[in-house]
Amino acid sequence: MKIGHGYKLFEMNSKGKIFPLFIGKTKETPMQEWVPAEIIDHHPSFSHRPGWHLGEIPAAPWLMSVDGTYKSQRSKKWKRVWAEVEYVADCDYTDFVAQTKEKCMKYTTPTNGYYFFKEAGLNRIWIIAGQIKVVRILSENERQEILKDMKYNEEEMFAPYKASIEKRMRNRKGK
Q: pTM of the entire structure?
C-alpha cells in the first residue's frame, strides 16, 4: 500500500477525543487506525465532495478567528488541533476528476486513493482521500516549525481573511 502524508484540523474535546470540524462532526475519529471516508448527508451550504479533506500544510487561514488562532466553535472546553495524517495513495484520481464537470467526486469516495482539488477562484488546494490514519496531534510549536520549514507565512496568508472578518464585524455594528 502506498502512503501519502498530510495534515488535518480537528476539534478535540476535554477528554482528548478528536472529531471532524463540520461534516460528520459528532463521530469520533480514532487515532492510529485506518478510517474510511463516508458519504454523509450534510447542510446544503457545504459542497458535496465525499472523502477526508486534508492539506499539504498544517494551515487553513480561512478557518482562523479574527485574532489569528484556530478556536473551537463548539464550546470553551473544546479546542482545534492539527494532526499529522497518512492517507492511502495507491490510486491518484486527480486526472480523472479533472475530466468531470464538477472537478471532484460527487457520489463516491476515492477508493484506495485520493485526488487534489483546487477550489475555484481561491488559492486552496485540498487532498481528498478515501481513507486516513491519524498519526499524531501536533503541538503548536511543531506546527509553526513545519510552516517555517515550508516557508509558509501564515500571518501573510491570513491577512485578507482577517480584513474580511473585520469588515463584517464593522458592518454588523453599524446596523
A: 0.89
Give the pLDDT confidence score for residue 122 in this predicted structure. Answer: 67
Element (H, E) at 135: strand 131-137
Q: Which amino acid is at 33?
A: E
Question: What is the Cα–Cα distance from 121 to 42, expressed in whole angstroms?
Answer: 23
The answer to whether 11 touches 25, Cβ cutoff 8 Å, is: yes
Find, among 115, 125, 119, the residue nearest to 152 by Cα: 125
Separation of alpha carbons 131 and 11, rounded Å: 19
Write the pLDDT tens digit of every residue in 123-135. 678 999 999 999 9
Beta bridge partners of 31: 134
**Amino acid code (one letter) for 96:** F
CA dihedral angle for residue 123, residue 127, residue 133, residue 137, rounded to 10 degrees: -10
pLDDT, tens digit (0-9, with 9 covering 90-100), for 6-41: 999 999 999 999 999 988 889 999 999 999 999 887
d(CA 124, CA 119): 6
Q: Which single residue is written with the C-alpha cell 480584513? A: 163
Number of H helices, E strands in the chain: 3, 9
Residue 50 one-letter amino acid: P
